[in-house]
Write a structure and sequence with these properties.
Elements: H1 2-39, E1 42-46, E2 55-56, E3 62-63, H2 65-78, E4 84-88, H3 94-99, E5 105-106, H4 114-119, E6 122-124, E7 129-131, E8 133-138, E9 152-157, H5 161-172, E10 177-182, H6 185-193, E11 199-203, H7 204-211, E12 220-222, E13 230-232, E14 235-237, H8 241-259, H9 267-270, H10 276-281, H11 298-305, H12 309-316
Parallel strand pairs: 1-4, 1-5, 9-10, 9-11
Antiparallel strand pairs: 2-3, 6-14, 7-13, 8-11, 8-12
Length: about 350
Amino acid sequence: MKKLTKKFSMQLLVSSLIIGGAMSSASAAESTLDKVRSGGVLKCGVSTGIPGFSNTDAKGHWEGIDVEYCRALAAAVLGDAKKVKFIPLTAKERFTALQSGEIDVLSRNTTWTLHRDGALGINFIGVTYYDGQGFMVNKALGITTAKELDGASVCIQSGTTTELNLADYFRTTGMKFKPVVFDTSDQTVRGFESGRCDVLTSDQSQLYALRIKLSNPKSAVVLPEVISKEPLGPVVRQGDDKWFNVAKWTLNILINAEEYGITKQNVEKMKKSNDPNVRRLLGLDGPKGKGLGLKDDWSYQIIKQVGNYGDVFNDTVGTGSPLAIERGLNALWNDGGILYAPPVR
């Protein structure tokens, strides 16, 4: 009898642990959404300053494509795109800040990789910018191709995928290089401009952004070679599926809104549309907000307050900005690019 009782007690203990773990997971799955709502503010991790992506203007206001994503998420969850606290982070700090709960979402020109997905306890919600690593050199050197960089000293930011890509590229091409490592992108620019290195390497979009920071931007040239795939996108913690879904579908709404021609300017008029795709997208018909735990007008608020993906791209990094980057791969799938979002159904 004692043996049976002991065995039953052990089974009960194991069952309790399993149920407790499941309840804990279920509670964690709603924790970030509840936390943001109760606190009334979204804590968004951004870079320490990359023009076009996340940077402060002359008045100290944050701007950039990564910044606008966070505003869209705040509009979806809180109904107000202004309720965001931006927290600048270095490449080394970013994942720890997310894992520890210091931030609710990381929107900081971060590359989606297998290691990061599988080993850091984080989830990428999608791609906000398709990029690739390149090189910027002083025009006076007369270098026109990366194949001429043998023996060069290269400024690079630590804690990024660019370090590994750089080593891979030089090894496979049989060339040698001397790394000059810095903690922030601003430091790499200063190192490059002061002559501590011959070359600055980063994502190509970042190179165009960093070139603007030079005292004479025309003194540097970005080489044509692209040596890697760098899908950049926002990141949330693993084990929080409800928040993951909200963050993911915020991006999907931005992309789908551009596809169906819904903008800040015409969103009120589009509410009268008979197109079922438009009506579902604006929360008038279809699944609305219940499945995500949001109000039915969550997607309308995103577009009304932030706009669509095309508008955001153009104003922050595209032809309407100082960077003047062409859409390229970041154009919609039906306009020569690879940008594509699941349907709202």
